[in-house]
Design a protein that fits this description.
By secondary structure, the chain is an all-alpha fold. It contains 2 helices and no strands. The relative contact order is 0.04.
């Protein structure tokens, strides 16, 4: 009688383990999909921010070409000095 009870318990444990494996697979799939969607949204926001920044720089350079040139030259000079010191 005890052998039958052990077999029944073993079968129940196998079934529960199988259900648990399926649940873990489903949770993994849900987490992967959520991460993929978050990454997609973050990339879209980054692209939009880059486009906005590019447009602002372009507008500024168009409105203030001389100032833009002086700023670019100053940045180039500072980078050159920094680069030489390294």
């Amino acid at each position: 009688m005890e052998s039958h009870s052990n077999t029944s318990t073993t079968a129940q444990l196998k079934e529960k383990a199988s259900e648990l494996v399926e649940d873990v697979k489903e949770l993994g799939s849900l987490a992967r999909n959520a991460a993929r969607e978050t990454l997609r949204d973050t990339c879209a926001e980054g692209r939009n921010a880059a486009r906005t920044a590019e447009q602002k720089v372009e507008d500024y350079v168009t409105r203030q070409p001389v100032t833009s040139l002086v700023v670019a030259a100053g940045i180039g000079f500072l980078l050159g000095c920094w680069w030489r010191r390294r």
